[in-house]
Amino acid sequence: MTPKEKAKELIDEYVDIMPPIENQTGKSIIKHAKQCAIIAVDAILSILNENCINDGYWDEVKEELNKSN
Question: Which pTM value belongs to this model?
Answer without folding.
Answer: 0.88
